[in-house]
């Protein structure tokens, strides 16, 4: 069945959702960026919207409220992640659920910071909330948990930030210092101009908060996570680790003891020592040992496939 | 919802399903091994059945036909995999579908050798057919494909036989010959007394045939696979590979070019070079790069979790 999608957010993920929706059998009826919107209840032409965004920096002549009021079956919330009250993303989601529409989030804020509020809204709505894209990009972490049965998973750990992983991999492989590799990552577009969200561990922590919420049916926010970043790791620590067959990765975990993210020593060729921007999630199960899922944890088309799989699951 | 399960086959997988069913909220109403059966429409006591199997080698005083005729919602087909007509497993499945019951297979035979026949029976039945346990034990390969959308997956490759992988890992790590390591694997219970199914590549090939059927909506049997085993790999080949930073693994693939299983050179610390009895499946996607799923590909409780996840998905 073809669903009508309203996409909020025209960053890499939102644009890729617009670009790929038709391929997944769906129609985009509204798109909004931070200042403008385009709406067409019979379906927007993705090329027109994307070209205008590219050329003029806007998606259309309307405003966000017009996109929120548009005809759609599913709201895709792909605006930037914000902390605390998770606004304006949370209000967008609320608006859609109160209209009995489905919501698919790529935005981590509402699911990490206001999970319980979100579930309370969902209970009163005929719409449902999905957010595979918020954890691990293209890696189907949440659907695997659902398929496996969350009650049989005892812990989740792994690498869920590609920027930090890229920096640590390069520091270890090339013997370079943090500042040098960060600058290189910024040149390559792997790190943002302000990389603090990634290198301080916040982004990874939000994902493990979401995992803790999913595994425990809510109760967690970022304030519950113990978080340490990678900025203070000297190159010499990586050299010392290497002499011992180990390396350093920014490892997160959601266990019955809580949520923690920080630099950890791991075996150099071990499962968790993925290289470059790759992500990995290890699910510790009750009866079946560890399951490892790895792949591309970020990127526009990659994350859009997770969004569109969520959309297709609604049918 | 609690479902009533009839379990055919009392090997490691069947026994673990009986053992864990209650934990997953279900009731076992019938169990059959190759010569006997136990039936109780109000629910069998798993301990009684398993102790009798352990002590006397039989599960009860009835016959297989009694188990097939029992009250159940789901038939779990966990008898040994057979090739060609895939009997008697196929007839068990047919019997259940004709009674409009669901079927969950751990037995690879019917899904690899008679996939099209199976789907034809399913279409006429109110029951459905699931078989996550037939590919990669505890690793949720098929549910990941379903969640991701099989039409967006272009190829599957990887290691789907733990015995062959154990032998190749040990040969490479210890510099020992094939016969020596095989004998060791048999002592450890990792290889069977007759290991031909595993070391000749048949078991891995059946799993890639199943993957090809899932990805292409049928059309394949074992006869379509190009299969080569690991018996003729000299230790010297592994030494040569190691000098080049590579090693040998029994790699299978299901691609648009067909199904192939055979020893291949892979990077020593690469994604596909899992060690010991671990399995890995790499799904090549259209828009999201490669997804890698690894975990325990065999074992009673591990495979039973896949069976019971399939059962729970029926609710």
Automatic annotation (TrEMBL), chains A, B:
Could you say which residues bind L-homoserine here? 192
Please tell me where NADP(+) binds in this chain.
9-14
Organism in which the protein naturally occurs: Halogranum gelatinilyticum
Q: Where is the active site?
A: 207
What protein does this entry describe? homoserine dehydrogenase
Q: What class of enzyme is it?
A: oxidoreductase
Q: Which family does it belong to?
A: Belongs to the homoserine dehydrogenase family.
PANTHER family linked to this entry: HOMOSERINE DEHYDROGENASE
Q: Which GO terms describe its biological process?
A: threonine biosynthetic process
Q: Which domain of life is it from?
A: Archaea
């Amino acid at each position: 069945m073809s669903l009508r999608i309203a996409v909020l957010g025209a960053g890499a993920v939102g644009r890729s959702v617009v670009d790929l929706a038709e391929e997944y059998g769906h129609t985009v009826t509204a798109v909004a960026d931070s200042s403008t919107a385009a709406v067409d209840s019979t379906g927007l032409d993705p090329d027109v919207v994307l070209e205008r965004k590219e050329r003029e920096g806007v998606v259309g002549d309307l405003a966000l409220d017009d996109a929120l009021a548009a005809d759609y079956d599913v709201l895709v919330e792909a605006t930037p992640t914000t902390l605390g009250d998770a606004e304006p993303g949370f209000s967008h989601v609320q608006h859609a659920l109160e209209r009995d529409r489905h919501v698919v989030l790529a935005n981590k804020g509402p699911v990490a910071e206001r999970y319980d509020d979100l579930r309370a809204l969902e209970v009163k709505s005929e719409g449902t909330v999905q957010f595979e894209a918020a954890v691990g990009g293209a890696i189907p972490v949440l659907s695997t948990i659902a398929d496996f049965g969350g009650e049989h998973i005892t812990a989740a750990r792994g690498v869920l930030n590609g920027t930090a992983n890229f920096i640590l991999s390069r520091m270890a492989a090339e013997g370079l210092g943090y500042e040098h590799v960060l600058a290189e990552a910024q040149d390559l577009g792997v790190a943002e101009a302000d990389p603090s969200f990634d290198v301080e561990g916040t982004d990874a922590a939000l994902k493990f908060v979401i995992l803790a919420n999913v595994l425990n049916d809510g109760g967690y926010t970022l304030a519950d996570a113990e978080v340490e970043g990678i900025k203070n790791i000297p190159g010499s620590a990586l050299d010392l680790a290497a002499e011992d067959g180990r390396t350093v990765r920014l490892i997160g975990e959601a266990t019955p003891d809580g949520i923690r993210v920080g630099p950890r020593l791991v075996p150099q060729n071990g499962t968790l020592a993925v290289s470059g921007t790759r992500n990995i999630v290890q699910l510790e199960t009750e009866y079946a040992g560890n399951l490892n899922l790895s792949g591309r944890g970020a990127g526009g088309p990659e994350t859009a496939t997770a969004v569109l799989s969520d959309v297709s699951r609604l049918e």
